[in-house]
Sequence to fold (279 residues):
Amino acid sequence: MKAKEKHVGTKAQIRAMKEKERRIATAIFLAFILLIVIFSSYFTYNFLNRPQNQTINPTSNPESPQPKAIIFDQLSLTFPNQTFVQTATNILTTANYTVYYYEGNQVTVDLYRSLPARGYSLIVLRVHAALGAGEQPPVALFTAEPYSNTRYVPEQLNDQLIKVAYGIVGQEISYYFAIWPNFVKYSMNGKFQNTTIIMMGCDGFKYMHMAEAFIEKGAKAYISWNSKVSASHTDQATIQLLKHLITEKQTIKQAIAETMEEVGPDPSYQSILCSLGAK
Fold:
């Protein structure tokens, strides 16, 4: 009798355990179904309420990279103007540009060499420029690198780099390397991609060699002066030009026209801004 009662009790316990396991399994299953319903509702809501102008492209980065600009300020060695640098930088950063600034002695031959490969949308060359010898000499763009006849020998022999002099009356003359159009064509690395060049120095359009070299290298546009220009005048004009080009998004032709109307030709040399490439 006692053995029989023990047998019946064990079966009841087994049935109770199975019932408990069934209820647990049912609860887990229902919780799983509930989670699926919640996640489905969430993604459906976000899909239906997505902005209508948003597109999905799984093969591209959804965030466009910021455009990049660079300011070469070799002129800071002789005519520093921090107001120009700060104002130009503010114009560009407000328009979401990432701005790189190289002053004085940082403007080297190799920095010029690397320009196309760096992916800049805008290059501002605040540099001295000088005409070479001859009937229609190319303009040369100064570096801040002291000249030596034992450096960059192949580039010197191939008319890519030349020796230029700078000095003020009564002071010692300094000699630097300067790049010629052939340097742009044959020694710069890579190609420019939709890049606008603003060459702030003298004589950028006295002759066409340098403008054509930059365009041949892939630049979208080259902007400069057709004669000599003072540092103060080119600084003032370039700020106005950047406002029209970057802030107001004018075409190059419109921006140059308005800049010339506002600041006029250089008061001493009567030079004006010109451009080659995009209109």
User: Anything to note?
Assistant: The first strand starts at residue 68 and ends at 73. The two ends are 110 Å apart (CA to CA). Confidence is low (pLDDT under 50) at residues 1-8, 42-63. The chain has two domains: 1-60, 68-277.
